[in-house]
Amino acid sequence: MSSTTFQPETRGVVRRSPALASRRKMVDLTVKWLCMAATLIGLFFLASIMLTLLWRGLVALDWTVLTEEFRPTRYGDDTAPKGGLVHAIIGSLIQTAIGTAIGTPIGLLVGTYLSEYARGSVLGNVLRFVSDVLLSAPSILIGLFIYQLVVLPMGGFSGIAGALALAIIVIPVVVRTTEDMLQLIPNTLREAVIGLGAPKWKMITLVCYKAAASGILTGILLAVARIAGETAPLLLTSFGNNVTSFDLTRAMASLPIAIYQQANSGFPDLIQIAWSGALLITLGVLAINIIARAVLRGRN
């Protein structure tokens, strides 16, 4: 009878080399510290911007800035009455509200079409490509487009032209966010709703939109935050003025243009008001985000 030597089964057993484990640990620590360093650098610049805005903007921020219109000044004359930015604040609110109201429904519908009806289709790919190009296009090109399409036929600058330029900027942001948020919803949820006999449009409006509401709202807020500080397209469309105006067929003031003009005026008091305007835009966008998140938290 021959004797056999028992050998343990070694197939499927992975032996880790100490050198390999050490190298992986070093790579992990390196990536971790690089990520932390990048985060700290980003927070440093963000804090620097906020502190600079508070330091320079709070100096001239008072009720005069919020209630008075622009007033001309003379260099070295400290006794001249200081103007404000109420005309620019009102103009920005009007144009931003109209631009958001026009661009949001269009972007929402296009994003819904790309996610729910045009997956893998040629038309869907073309629309997605155009949206991505528009998302990365310089805003001055949008201003030139509206200048040719609206300003020249109307015979002058107008608030409605500025609002249309801002609406075009809003559309691709909302399209991308809506499509991405709807695609995160599991298909099993859609199948369950369709299996209950609900039509597709009702499944989208009552189930998908509700599930993706927070993400879609975040995209809308991102669009509002972007157009709130746009200057280049408004220079070619609404142009700006120094008085409060509610007439959308005429030139209309806005905070970005007022900041641009007064920051380049060379007068110290107007430069201080420009810093206050920049602070107002930042605080306004921050307030919108805080309110929206509080509302969404209450819904959840």
TrEMBL record:
Annotated ranges, domain ABC transmembrane type-1: 89-292
Signal peptide coordinates: none
Domain of life: Bacteria
Record's bilayer topology term: Multi-pass membrane protein
Keyword Transmembrane annotated: yes
Pfam families per record: BPD_transp_1
TM annotation in the entry: 33-55, 85-114, 126-150, 156-175, 207-228, 273-296
Subcellular locations according to the entry: Cell inner membrane; Cell membrane
Keywords annotated in UniProt: Cell membrane, Membrane, Phosphate transport, Transmembrane, Transmembrane helix, Transport
NCBIfam families given in the database record: 3a0107s02c
Family listed: Belongs to the binding-protein-dependent transport system permease family. CysTW subfamily.
The protein's name in its UniProt record: Phosphate transport system permease protein PstA
Organism from which the protein derives: Falsiroseomonas tokyonensis
Gene: pstA
